[in-house]
Amino acid sequence: MCDHTSIYIHIPFCVKKCVYCDFYSRTDLSLIPDYVTALQWEMENRSGLKGEINTVYFGGGTPSLLQINEVASLLKTIDAHFSVARDVEVTLEVNPGTVDLRYLKALKDIGINRLSIGVQSLKDDKLKFLGRIHTAGQAAGIVEDAGKAGFDDVSMDLIYGLPFETERTWLEDLTAAVRMMPSHLSCYMLTIEPGTPLEKQSRKGLIQPLDHQVMSALFKTTVQFLDASHYEHYEISNFSRGSQNRSKHNSKYWEMMPYYGFGAAAHAYDGRTRSWNYKSIHTYIKRIAAGRLPVEDREILTLEQKMMEMIMLRLRTREGLDLKKFQALFQVSFKDQFKVILASILDASFGVIKSDRLALTLDGKCHLNGIVEAFARHLF
Ligand code: SF4
User: Fold this and answer.
1) Rounded to the nearest whole angstrom, what is the distance from the C-alpha of residue 285 to the centroid of ligand 1?
2) Cα of 314 to ligand 1 centre, how many Å?
3) What is the pLDDT of residue 4?
């Protein structure tokens, strides 16, 4: 077991559902007070992992819908029931349509030290298409306010690859974002998820998603532009102004470190077993009110599942997959086990092995899904 662990707190509430989003969240905000009480109970009753907490992450949904006193009470519960590192990274996701400068200053005062702002775009037509509740002007204003409130660590989420996106519109968006000098950028390709309004539009032929080739070109544009703007591409969708500004919390997922996950639909991992909570907010609150843990199920990861996770997560990163670590963990040589797949990755120049690490090239990253599928077919 390692020395550090993390806490993820899921806040599954949103003002309105965005058309592309398949995350679990509800728009009935009247449930928030009972939900926060239930979260506190869950944290008080599930604190079994060893090690100091060195990252806490409020994700959603829309965590910035919580009142300041609700965030503060959750932080107090963490302090009271866990051993928290002095230099803990505490991130809260912010929807620019839900906060103002006063709220951000109050977040800073109670101990939040990193913001992840769901800007998505600095263009109103893109925001409208995505069904966001804020304008580009509001989003830019909140990024500025984050600086005024004293946050040094500010990440902006952006989405690209909308049906009408061109290299020019995406570069305009990126340029506007970089001008605001965030310490971190997450740039996500728009994907059409099953069951979303966007998928319905696509099925009816109302929108024409961009094809893989165009998406790959936009991905390369992103990497090249942000590299020239001095952002380090450290994970397939993530860029930081130097390694000190990487998301410590998310980096721990990519390193397969244990974490707690609290809240409806949250997942947790203790290094051996993965468990997940009931998705429904009502079920979550009801079970806790009856004094029962909200865990719906758990599974002990098989050796193959662990191998797959390690391959899938590490190939997303700049550092890549450590082949010696793989051998030490699984007692098999990666090169022997995946001889054919590895040869085809190297032949296609989709990956390189340097200092006993396999990392994907930019072209390889454009084919990440296919590469991961090839490993999965071999293992299962
Ligand atoms: S605000 Fe975020 S979590 Fe909520 S619907 Fe939109 S994308 Fe999904």
Assistant:
1) 21
2) 27
3) 80
**Which residues are CB-contacts of 297 (< 8 A; sequence separation ≥ 6)?**
275, 276
Atom of ligand 1 at shortest range from CA of 21: 8
In CATH terms, the fold of domain 303-379 is: Arc Repressor Mutant, subunit A (1.10.10)
Q: Where are the domains of the chain?
A: 4-254, 303-379
Q: What is the mean pLDDT of residues 270-285?
A: 96
* The residue to which tokens 């009972």 are assigned: 34
Residue nearest to atom 3 of ligand 1 (CA): 61
Q: Taking residues 91-97, what's their average pLDDT? A: 98
8 A C-beta contact, residue 158 and residue 119: yes
Q: Does the pTM of the predicted model rise above 0.85?
A: yes
Cα–ligand 1 centroid distance for 310 (angstroms): 28
Ligand 1-lining residues (CB < 6 angstroms): 14, 17-18, 21, 23, 25, 60-62, 95, 118
- Domains 4-254 and 303-379 agree in fold: no
**Distance, CA 14 to ligand 1 centroid (Å)?**
6
Ligand 1 atom nearest the C-alpha of 20 is 7
d(CA 217, CA 38): 46
What is the 12 CA–ligand 1 centroid distance (Å)?
9
Residues contacting residue 361 through CB under 8 Å, at least 6 positions apart: 349, 350, 351, 352
Confidence of residue 2 (pLDDT cuts 50, 70, 90): low
Give CA–CA dist 250/1, Å, rounded: 19
Q: Which CATH class is domain 4-254?
A: alpha beta
Q: Whose CA is nearest to atom 8 of ligand 1?
A: 21
Residues 6+ positions from 162 with CB-CB distance below 8 Å: 126, 129, 130, 190, 210
